[in-house]
């Protein structure tokens, strides 16, 4: 997923440069990424259970799917439409992986075991 995320970022940067928006959008993406990293770090420092951590990952992936669905719906430039058509299925697959991981962890949990937070 990290390799694919890097490819998404690189393809987006190509489009952003072509539109003259690279600096502005890159700054926004960096702030968003840093904010998400801060939230994830707080969860892990708080002793978040693996299932909750996977749920957090699924929330992030769901947000990416929603964003790419909006980009796909709004895309009118060829490069953007092509990028959205490529990225949306990829992000949906990432969401499915996160959901599958959460379900797997839930099946392995002891319903009578100790509870987290």
In short:
With 117 residues, this protein is mainly alpha-helical. Helix content is 84%, strand content 0%.
Instruction: Report the oligomer.
Output: single chain
Binned strand content: under 5%
Task: Report the biggest beta sheet as strand number plus sense, adding barrel if it closes.
Answer: none
What structural class should be given to the helix and strand makeup?
A: mainly alpha
Number of strands: 0
Order of helices and strands: HHHH
Average the pLDDT over all residues and give the rounded result: 81
Proportion of residues in helical segments: over 70%
Q: Gyration radius, to the nearest Å?
A: 17 Å
Distance between the termini: 29 Å
Outline type: elongated
Q: In terms of per-residue confidence, which ranges show pLDDT below 50 for 5 or more consecutive residues? A: none
Count of helix runs: 4
Q: How would you sum up this structure, described in words?
A:
- This protein is mainly α and 117 residues long.
- Helices cover 84% and strands 0% of the residues.
- The chain is built from four helices and no strands.
- The chain has helices spanning 2-19, 22-45, 50-74, 78-108.
- Helix 1 (2-19) packs antiparallel against helix 2 and helix 1 (2-19) runs antiparallel to helix 4.
Summarize this structure as a short list of keywords or feature phrases.
117 residues, single chain, mainly alpha
Note the topology.
Elements lengths: L1 H18 L2 H24 L4 H25 L3 H31 L9
Helix pairs in contact: 1-2, 1-4, 3-4
